[in-house]
UniProtKB/TrEMBL annotation:
Record's keyword annotation contains Iron: yes
Domain of life: Bacteria
Family from the record: Belongs to the cyclic nucleotide phosphodiesterase class-III family.
Keyword line: Hydrolase, Iron, Metal-binding
SUPFAM superfamilies found in the cross-reference section: Metallo-dependent phosphatases
GO molecular function, one term: metal ion binding
Keyword Metal-binding appears in the UniProt entry: yes
Limits of the Calcineurin-like phosphoesterase domain: 10-189
Source organism: Ectopseudomonas oleovorans
InterPro entries referenced in this protein's UniProt entry, alphabetically: Calcineurin-like_PHP, CNP_phosphodiesterase-III, Metallo-depent_PP-like
Protein name according to UniProt: 3',5'-cyclic AMP phosphodiesterase CpdA
Pfam entry (one): Metallophos
Amino acid sequence: MARQDDFLAFAHIGDLHLTTAEADNARDLQTLLQRLRERTELDFVYLPGDNADNGTAEQYRLLRRLLDDFPLPVTVITGDHDMEGGDLGPFYAELQVPQLPYFREVGGVRCLFLDMCGPGTGGPDFRLGREQLQWLEQELHEATRLEQRCVVFMHSYPADLQGPGEAERVARLLHEGPVRLVEIGHTHYNELAHDGGVLYAACRSTGQIEEGGVGFALVTLDGPAVSWRFRELPDGWPWVQITAPGDPRLNGAGVAEGHECRVLVLGDADLSACEWQCDDGPWWPLQPLGKGRYQGDRPVPEGTRRLQVRVRDSRGGEDIDRLDLDGGHRPLAAPADWGSDRTQLGEWQAKGVLGTQLGPNRNGRKW
């Protein structure tokens, strides 16, 4: 049964497009992994597909070497570039990852990992196929029966599915089921889209970037509340992120009306301050819960419009996160727009979203 104290936290590293060890994206991945290797606050690191630019065994062996001594769990799914060789044989043989699809329960949340590529013929022929569709439907039914919240991990928006009726069917299953969040890759840019039922979150790629710099997104599900924020590599520690209440633009009605302030802090030094503030009121201390989580020492006052938190560490590093509680909930989109980027929220600098859609499938170059 879903509980208010269910908690999931992971880092999303965008499409790698690995070619050789000497390429910039391979070095950037090394730097990202070094940055994350001590982050025991996280449940796992997520790679959303297009791991190998040409789907070759050599490129997967490079990824395997980069991950070999990484101490955190890493979940890897497929993208269209992983099918460039005609099948997913090298993907499974070299990475030794579980056969997709599969589910894992993490922090009380049912995480569903899908394969949009294997059932197709390669390239943009995204499909789930009959068996995987039935599996997804059964998993969502089981999660509903158990009153579990779900996060779905897939390479692209459901709208990109090419199988007969798949796009509409999957978008409806996700929208009407217990799904709070769908984490995707493929775009090459950061994007957040909300159809009034589900948040879709795409993370900037690590290879073939046209907007901004390399980085990763920190994603949490705290009870029913989703939080998401991308930061580039040069941004140092600490990192503080409000995990509850939920931002109205990222969550449905009711989720932003929580009575407790909770945050997740990532850092590499002791904190000298960890505080929160409602509107223009006084700063109050946040109390540690363990594993980088902190909670307010009193309820969020009724009528609060803006909530912000700030941290400072012993090395002088600082970070701040803000939440506009009267920002307005996302209206219910027309069913024809469910599961697509037509519900995208646009530019949102505080989340690292530039709104450019600079990627090969929209406004960018064709790699």
